[in-house]
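Pair request: fold both.
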Amino acid sequence: MRDDLLDKLLASKKYRDICPDTVRRVWAECVGKYKKPKDVDRAAREALHGITAAFMTGEESLQLARDMHAWHCDKTDIGLERMLSRHASTRERLPLSDTDALYGRLFEITGRPRSVLDLACGINPLYLGARGVNTVGVDISGSAVEAVNRFGQVYGMPVRAVCADLLSPGAIPGVEYDVALLFKLLPLLERQRAASAMDVMRALNAKWLVASFPTRTLGGRNVGMAGHYSDWMSAHIPPGRSLADHFETSNELFYILKQDMR
């Protein structure tokens, strides 16, 4: 009965865009908490809804495909900004001048990277690729991964992405990168599994880690999130790394961690 419900969940229209490893992991976690199959199914759907709330809608994905084609024809910043507006995570860093300023500030510290690993990337690799930065993205959203790979394969940009669950074995690439981005990711990991944020940071093979945290609620309220996440990050700098810099934008707190000399 439970296997039938899991198969149904994997094939459902609402969740078939999610990395199958994520669905199976969440399902297994719910099996450990509930005895009745219906309770497991309900809890798994609630958990998956919370994880995927920021995914692009089907219409946004179609609009993004059209935007990519238009941008490829004219290569304007207006077209790039239109692309980035199709996903919540990149939309909130617009206008494009703000995004450029953010990366300018980050790269002043890390140096312009030859390679970037973008975890829970959404469509952020489209921005980096358009700016000539070689980027590998990892995300559980099949539509985001498809968009990034289309940008790389069809339009010749230096980006690619893989669909993988960061809390499942083997999801983090082992090769070395200059910079790893963890934008608003660590709190999401901690909500799903305690201590997983530190596990992910320790597993990364990158000279620099850039982690960010939200400082305002979805409604735009300032409720002390900056102070909370500042305290958390100060207590969770991984072994072998040290703080290079930190700063705050209008709605996001950034920490830049460097790899210590070996």
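--- second member of the pair ---
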Amino acid sequence: MISTLQIEDLAIRRGERLLFEHLDFTVSAGEAVALTGRNGAGKTSLLRAIAGLLRPAAGTVRFDGAPDADEARSRDLHLIGHLDGLKGGRTAREELAFAAGWCGADAAGLARAAEALDLGRLLNLEVRKLSAGQRRRVALARLVAAPRTLWLLDEPLSPLDSVWRARVGALIAEHLEGGGMLLAAVHDPLPVPGRTVEIGG
């Protein structure tokens, strides 16, 4: 299990545009870090670089506690983007089973996630019939179904109402209390105590 995420002298370009450079910070076990900055500053690109989906222009991403970065990414990391990535023509049950199963969830994990995100009445509905908040709950359920140490979340609370923001905040707090880590791109404050790193400031 990884114990620390370290970002060292990181720079990211998209095409010819330099989004940011010389970025340094650390996320440790039990810690939540909020990424802030204007639209287009590079928050989403940073999450994707940490997840191995985008190659940095310079610098390093290091996961302490894992033999190498590839193993850490495949075993200890969840990335949930701003778009939920769910197929509208499939049921919520099918989408949850696919996404969480890909991450190693078993039947008990799926049941636990469905209960935690109150998905019971939604599982047999096609995703296209769900509200934006309901779709986000289906996407977030994989965090519970297949526990992993580092959560990389892009605007995780944006489509949720106040009740569900609080309930997801409780799930995040439980994750951190168990030694997990959270790095989230946000415009609104996180529902748990944490540190802020401004991108492109």
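Observation on the second member. The first helix runs from residue 43 to 50.
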